[in-house]
Amino acid sequence: MLTLQYLQQNTEHIVERLKTRNQDYRELIDQIKQLDEERRSRQQEVNDSQAELNNLSKQIGQLFKEGRTDEANKVKEQNAKLKESVKEGQQRLHAIEEEIRSLMVQIPNVPHETVEQGKGEEDNVLVRQNGQAPDLGQDALPHWELAKKHDIIDFDLGNKITGRGFPIYKNEGARLQRAMISYFLDKAREQGYQEVQPPLMVNEDSAFATGQLPDKEGQMYQVPIDNFYLIPTAEVPVTNIYRDSIVEEKDLPLKLTAYTPCFRREAGSWGKEVRGLNRVHQFDKVEIVQIDHPERSYETLEAMTSYVESLIADMGMPYRVMRLCGGDLGFAAALTYDFEVYSSAQDKWLEVSSVSNFTSYQANRLKLRFRQEGKKKPQLAHTLNGSALALPRLLAAMLENYQEEDGIRVPEVLQKYTGFSSIKRKEEGR
RNA sequence: GGAGGAAUGGCGGAGUGGUCGAACGCGGCGGUCUUGAAAACCGUUGUCCGGUAUCCCCGGACCGGGGGUUCGAAUCCCUCUUCCUCCGCCA
After folding, report:
1. Structural domain count, chain A
2. Which nucleotides of chain B does any protein CB come within 7 A of?
3. Can you tell me which residue has its alpha carbon closest to the C1' of nucleotide B54?
4. pLDDT, tens digit (0-9, with 9 covering 90-100), for A326-341
5. How long is the CA A216 to C1' B15 vector, in angstroms?
6. N or C of chain A: less Cβ packing under 10 Å?
7. CB of A267 within 7 Å of some strand B atom
8. Distance A42 CA to B62 C1' (A)
9. Same domain flag for A386 and A414
10. Are A134 and A216 within one domain?
11. Residue A158 within a domain
């Protein structure tokens, strides 16, 4: 969430920029500012009374020690009244604080100056496009048919085991995914990212800190008996590693990478859009996360963007980079680039990565700060993350783009990891 | 899952009702000494909120979280969480 200080000092700018998200937050912000004023005066009252209370208590102790019991008891009575009012004041203060908080979490992050207003996906801005779509001819098959033909993904079996959106990868399909995971992790490590394996379930605090709660619980699978959530992305557990912590300025940036399965309920999706691997409930992803200095975070975003781009280019996939418009931008993000690969048999662009700068929005919830050289007060860090990369749609596009008459070619960079250079159906004996 | 014990500042570890934001040690920072460094010695050392106040100053809060008793709680009570020991189960 935003900080109150920022909200107080930059109201106009914030209201203006938030309009790119197609909403007017002025009223809400004014309400918060008003409440904050009330909070301050209450706080002052409570503080003063408390100071007096502390003083009197000390006096009582002193009087008892000196044996002046009567006087002590008198002060005690006086104290009792004061105590009542302090308690009342505190309760009111807490109520106000709670109200402010509940309003604060309704304000999304302020979009970066390059973010344009727009309704949704259709208004995202094309930043770059690269790579050549293969000429496949009339007989090109969509990936779900290729998957069946070569026996590498079984959607029906997944339906049986769990339900729609939980495919079972088999044979070269399974091995190709494993290869991609290793490849992406190795690449990330070369870039200086520390590899971690986080939990796949998180508690409420973690889900709140990265912005999934309070509003998006419907998108996550829940484990109610333990009050856990299955992670929708590694961003959640990985970023939360640094919740409630103060790091040294010289240690920035902190760079982490993790491979995890991701679980998304994606309620309300159906039809052609979700065919095959286009949208699934469980998928594998390698995530990169950076925690960096506020002065550098946008440069870092660009660096992460180029890195993701290089991964896609190295696999020879046609892709484009989109800058999300205000209407499509995530709640906690200030700037997001989406990466889409072209899936030629479907003639569709599939999103395989999303790289975002959350500025201090998550950090504020995380209480993630860094200590600045020469300054006493710690300052909020900036958090960034990106997929590098999400597997299923990449696999879908790969199958389609690299299909040949007698099989599917494996991108050269992956061959060292797969141990095979093409996928061919074997007649028997798997 | 059952029984018992514990949780204190960056770390270790005192403190069982007031004078405790908290002894002492380590670490960190600053200084003296030294050509430099080490050692030794001296000093300093958290976070949050508020006071028109990023540093200084003042008030308040914080001894795992929440609640309670009390004029007064790190200290007593309740509750939750986590950790340790023993037992059970287990890849």
Report:
1. 2
2. 18, 47-51, 54-56, 59-61, 71-72
3. A377
4. 999 999 999 999 999 9
5. 47
6. C
7. no
8. 19
9. yes
10. yes
11. yes
Q: Which amino acid type is present at position A371?
A: R
Indicate if the pLDDT at residue A309 is higher than 80: yes
Pairing of strands A125-130, A153-154: unpaired
**CATH number, domain at A72?**
1.10.287
- Most confident option among A19-23, A92-96, A224-228, A373-377: A19-23
Tell me, yes or no, whether A291 and A369 share the same domain: yes
The answer to whether some atom of strand B lies closer than 7 Å to the beta carbon of A376 is yes
Q: Looking at residue A87, what is its pLDDT?
A: 77
Å between A47 CA and B21 C1'? 18
List pLDDT tens digits, range A360-378.
999 998 888 888 776 778 8
Residues A129 and A9 occupy one common structural domain = no
Q: What is the domain-level CATH number for residue A244?
A: 3.30.930.10
Q: Mean pLDDT over residues A17-33, rounded? A: 93
Instruction: Please tell me whether residues A67 and A127 are part of one structural domain.
Output: no
Q: What are the distances in angstroms from CA A288 to CA A241, A369, A386, A398?
A: 13, 19, 5, 22
Domain range for A320 is: 121-423
CA of A374 to C1' of B41 (A): 27
Q: Which nucleotide is nearest to A93 (CA to C1')?
A: B49
Based on its alpha-carbon atoms, the radius of gyration of chain A, rounded to whole angstroms, reads 27
**A107: Cα separation from own chain's centroid:** 16
Q: Which of A57, A78, A104 is the last residue of a domain?
A: A104
Would residue A63 count as lying in a domain? Answer: yes
Q: Of chain A residues 216-255, which have a beta carbon within 7 Å of strand B? A: 246
Sign of CA dihedral A326, A330, A336, A341: negative
Hey, what amino acid is at A396? Answer: A
Q: Which residues of A356-384 are buried (b: 16+ CB within 10 A; e: fewer)?
A: bbbbbbbbbbbebbbbeeeeeebebbbbb
Strand B proximal to A341 Cβ, under 7 A: no
Q: Is the C-beta atom of A90 closer than 7 angstroms to strand B?
A: no
Q: CA A371 → C1' B39, Å?
A: 31
* Same structural domain, A76 and A130: no
Please report whether residue A116 resides in a domain. no
A308 within some domain: yes
Contact A1, A65 (CB under 8 A): no
Q: What is the pLDDT of residue A300?
A: 96
The reply to whether A375 has its C-beta less than 7 Å from any atom of strand B is: yes
Same domain, A252 and A369: yes
Cβ of A4 near strand B (distance < 7 A): yes
Q: Are residues A160 and A278 in the same domain?
A: yes
